[in-house]
């Protein structure tokens, strides 16, 4: 009898362990099987691969205002988007690795690089169809968490872990395998905020099902995206839009960029220009919104200069700095366009002398601007800007032009 009980107990223990092992195996494979059916439900990998680009137009609701928006999507995971956040128009772009944005809400009117939180959001926007396509490529990990009732619909719950350790929780319909909603980290004025995103109105676009209604809540925010039209693989897509542009003010200084032959003149007592040297200059954008010039010339002494140009949004003027190598001196100028000339004037950052003998004020005037070059005339004043005298002149001619 004891032997029978022992045999019976051993048998049930074996069966229990077998069920447990089978259950664990089934649990580990559930995520893969759900993802496989989900990818099939959204149109399949083959149809997705046929999509090279999309032009999406629709309506975007923010701050209770409904305005049109346009998104250009490019494979794989790149996009350019123009939309409105209430009273301000916003432009953002993502090249798959780095994003940039023009968002006047932050009182920055020129393009700036997106921070890590914003780029995480951009990857979500660029996903377009499904994040689970990246699971097949080994870029994300997925964990099956079970089932739930989501807005009255039975759903599978999948935890998605992305590069950077960003986590999203997706709820897929047990009936259609299409997404019902997902939870993620969103962005609110460049700061992270937990968000819920809901999907509806799936329609086939080139064989791929895309939600045409997306509703998102985060913090006190409420956003609605409604797609009205989708153009598949448009021929006039400009990929250059993905590149962060210079601010418009620095774009106006692009005439300075180039390789130059430079004639250097000084003013004589007879009020004539006398050529003292001939040299060369290279002016380059060493940063997106900064021009740098290196030039060396002789005026009895050798002057090695490094000049930089950028724009100050605080002053709403251009800033010109001039470093003189032989004296290790740095001069600062503020400037603006006056008619067809670019005029810089030295600032009070330089050391001032007494009121009876003030420091000279210098003006750098860029004129005769053409595609082939320009002229720089340097003037100076010893009477606090009442009168200016001509000092030096530099005639820049582009090499090879």
Structure overview:
The structure is a single chain. With 401 residues, this protein is α+β, with helices and mostly antiparallel strands. A hairpin with a 5-residue loop joins strand 14 (258-267) and strand 15. The protein starts with a helix and ends with a strand. It has two domains: 23-242, Lipoprotein localisation LolA/LolB/LppX (outer membrane lipoprotein receptor (LolB), chain A); 248-398, Lipocalin, CATH 2.40.128.20. The relative contact order is 0.09. Residues 1-29 have low confidence and may be disordered. It contains four helices and 23 strands. 16% of the residues lie in helices and 54% in strands. The strands form two sheets. The chain has a 13-stranded antiparallel β-sheet with strand order 6-5-4-3-2-1-13-12-11-10-9-8-7. Strands 14-15-16-17-18-19-20-21-22-23 form a ten-stranded antiparallel barrel. The protein has helices spanning 2-41, 44-50, 116-127, 248-251, and strands at residues 53-62, 65-74, 78-85, 88-94, 99-102, 112-113, 141-150, 153-162, 166-173, 179-188, 191-205, 208-218, 221-232, 258-267, 273-287, 290-299, 301-312, 317-324, 329-338, 341-346, 361-370, 373-381, 389-398. The chain is elongated.
């Amino acid at each position: 009898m004891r032997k029978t009980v022992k045999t019976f107990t051993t048998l049930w223990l074996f069966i229990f362990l077998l069920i447990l092992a089978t259950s664990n195996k089934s649990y580990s494979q559930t995520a893969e099987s759900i993802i496989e059916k989900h990818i099939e439900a959204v149109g399949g990998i083959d149809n997705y691969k046929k999509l090279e680009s999309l032009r999406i137009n629709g309506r975007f609701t923010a701050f209770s205002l409904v305005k049109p928006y346009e998104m250009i999507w490019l494979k794989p995971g790149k996009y350019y988007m123009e939309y409105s956040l209430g009273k301000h128009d916003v432009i953002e772009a993502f090249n798959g690795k780095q994003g940039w944005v023009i968002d006047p809400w932050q009182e920055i009117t020129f393009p700036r690089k997106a921070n890590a939180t914003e780029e995480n959001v951009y990857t979500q926007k660029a996903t377009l169809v499904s994040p689970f396509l990246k699971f097949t490529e080994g870029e994300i990990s997925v964990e099956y968490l079970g089932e739930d009732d989501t807005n009255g619909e039975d759903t599978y719950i999948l935890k998605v872990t992305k590069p950077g350790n960003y986590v999203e929780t997706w709820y897929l319909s047990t009936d259609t395998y299409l997404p019902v909603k997902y939870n993620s980290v969103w962005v609110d004025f460049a700061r992270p905020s937990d968000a819920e995103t809901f999907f509806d109105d799936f329609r086939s676009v080139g064989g791929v099902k895309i939600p045409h209604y997306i509703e998102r809540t985060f913090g006190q925010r409420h956003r609605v995206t409604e797609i009205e039209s989708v153009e598949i693989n448009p021929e006039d897509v400009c990929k250059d839009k993905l590149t962060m542009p210079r601010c418009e003010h620095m774009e106006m200084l692009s005439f300075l960029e180039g390789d130059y032959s430079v004639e250097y003149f000084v003013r004589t007592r007879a009020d004539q220009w006398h050529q003292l040297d001939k040299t060369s200059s290279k002016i380059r954008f060493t940063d997106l919104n900064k021009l740098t010039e290196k030039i060396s010339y002789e005026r009895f002494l050798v002057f090695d200069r490094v000049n930089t140009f950028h724009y100050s949004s605080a002053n709403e003027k251009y800033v010109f700095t001039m470093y003189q190598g032989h004296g290790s001196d740095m001069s600062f100028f503020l400037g603006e366009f006056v008619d067809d000339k670019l005029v810089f004037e030295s600032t009070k950052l330089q050391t001032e002398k007494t009121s009876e003998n003030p420091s000279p004020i210098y003006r750098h005037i860029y004129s005769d601007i053409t595609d082939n070059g320009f002229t720089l005339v340097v003037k100076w004043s010893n009477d606090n800007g009442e009168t200016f005298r001509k000092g030096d002149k530099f005639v820049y001619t582009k090499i090879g032009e």
